[in-house]
Amino acid sequence: MEHKGLTERYQRQIQLKEFGVAGQLKLSQASVLVVGAGGLGCPALLYLAAAGVGKIGIVDDGLVEMSNLHRQVLYGTQDIGKKKVTCAKEVLQRMNDDIEIEVFAARVTSFNAFEIIAAYDIIIDGTDNFQSRYLINDACAILNKPLVYGAISRYEGQVSVFTSGINYRDIFPYPPKDGEVLNCSEAGVLNVLPGFIGNLLANECIKLITGIGEVLIGKLLVYNILSSYIYTIEISPTERSAQVRPLSKADFEQVDYPSLCGIEAPRQDEISADELNSLYSNREVDVVDVREDFELPKISHYTHIRIPLSSLHKEISVIKKDTVVFVCQSGKRSLLAAQRYRELISPQSKAVFSLKGGIASLEAGIKR
Amino acid sequence: MLRVLFFGQLTDITGCTQLELGTVGDTDSLENVLRTQYPSLAQAKYVITVDRKIVRTKTKIAAGMEIALLPPFSGG
After folding, report:
1. Chain B residues 24-63 with a CB less than 8 Å from chain A
2. Structural domain boundaries enclosing A209
3. Are A318 and A348 a contacting pair, CB within 8 Å?
4. Residue A265 belongs to a domain
5. With the C-alpha atoms ordered B47, B15, A159, A68, is the resulting torsion angle positive or negative?
6. Of A151, A229, A315, B19, which is most buried with the most CB atoms under 10 A?
7. Is A328 in the active site?
8. What CATH number has the domain bearing residue A56?
């Protein structure tokens, strides 16, 4: 903060007596993770980056679409078809190169959420579906991370800050089933609504970090932009919340969030050694061995990639072909790998399989 | 008199953002009255607040209290 350019950049907020140099220093040392770089994420990101939040993480697996542009103000016509996180980082970094921006071109899942969330001070939920919202809520509750929550529908938005023993399940203990509550693509949304609500999220974040003002802890604010009506209700911790949410990392990883929200899990496609053989002869296939490096025997009959299951999320870009077959010792880990991979690449369409019976069936098949 | 506010997509069911009701003894009877008037409410997901506090069990309602029905939003 000694740097003249820095103090000059933030001069107008530093001169606020409640905020001051101390507030700016706190912002520069803070890290905020924004999950969802859509209608809510874009304005929140713009203002957090401009404010000088030291490290910002962005998680989104989506590509820019034409129908996003009216409200997702980080993107332009020329970005259609590009990864949102890449475009967002470019704009934000051009706006403020003092800050660090980390991007995750993935969807949050029960397998990657802990690792991503643990590295940040505050999490913003700007996602557009209940599956992600409950998943992020539960992970933040276990990790004791303050969660700044925002959600919108048509002309109305909700904002709250979940921390100090209160979480989203204290309002809505159980997720609605798929289709029970409409999202923006089904219900529609006026473009300025996420602008307002996204800015409220950035505002709650800045207040949390700098300690100025009152934060919406234990309160849910509802804002209607047609009537300019603001309605705030109180939220208290409930016993029910602790009964219905996972309380440890191990429990969390066992929760099937898609099916909890009534979304059918993708079909687990298991194939036999013979089927693998025919796929391999007829298509471009990436065979992926997900065993640890020391495990034997090695696969000798197929060109393959070796990615231990534990590092799959870090190395998914190595898998390039449209047909992917996961292999392990017994067929259990490969099934898990196929499931995780599908979640990680979502919504891309690839044919993803797991070899039933593992290496043993492969060896038997070849000998026969 | 009793003021009942509806939020989000619940207004698709009720066709209005607020309603004034006569005397209703408690939240259970209030829900019965509302569901008789708007049968689709039975399938909707919401929490009820009385004077801006969430209530989950049968709660007495006195004249002049403010009731709201708030649904979850998923959009982002």
Report:
1. 45, 47, 49, 52-54, 56
2. 4-260
3. no
4. no
5. positive
6. A151
7. yes
8. 3.40.50.720
Cβ-nearest to B52 among A151, A176, A234:
A234
Q: Chain B residues with CB inside 8 Å of A238's CB?
A: 56
* Helix, strand, or coil (residue A324): strand
Residue found by looking up tokens 């990680």 in the block: A344
Which residues, in sequence order, are bridge partners of residue A234? Answer: A219, B53
Interface contact A39, partner B, CB < 8 A: yes
* Cα A150 to Cα A17, A198, A214, distances in angstroms: 29, 7, 17
Quick: pLDDT tens for A260-282.
887 765 555 888 888 888 888 88
Q: What angle, 0 to 180 degrees and rounded to 10, lies between the N-to-C axes of helices A41-51 and A84-95? A: 30
* A220 assigned to some structural domain: yes
**Interface contact flag, B54 A181, Cβ < 8 Å:** no
Which residues have CB under 8 Å from A31's CB, separation 6+? A53, A54, A55, A56, A57, A119, A120, A121, A122
Q: Is A262 exposed, middle or buried (0-12, 13-18, 19+ CB in 10 A)?
A: middle
Chain B positions in Cβ-Cβ contact with residue A150 (cut-off 8 Å): 76
CATH 2.30.40.10 fits B2-70, yes or no: no
Q: Are A285 and A249 in contact (CB under 8 A)?
A: no
SS (H, E, C) A173-205: CCCCCCCCCCCHHHHCECCHHHHHHHHHHHHHH
Virtual CA dihedral for B10, B16, B17, B22, nearest 10 degrees? -100
pLDDT, one tens digit for every residue, chain B (76 residues) = 899 999 999 999 999 999 999 889 999 999 999 999 999 999 899 999 999 999 999 999 999 999 999 999 999 9
Say if A42 falls within a structural domain: yes
Residue where a domain stops, chosen among A240, A260, A280: A260
A176 vs B68: CB contact, 8 Å cut-off? no
Nearest CB partner across the interface for B75, out of A180, A189, A222: A189
Question: Is the Cβ pair A41, B76 closer than 8 Å?
Answer: yes
Residues on chain B touching A194 (C-beta within 8 angstroms): 76
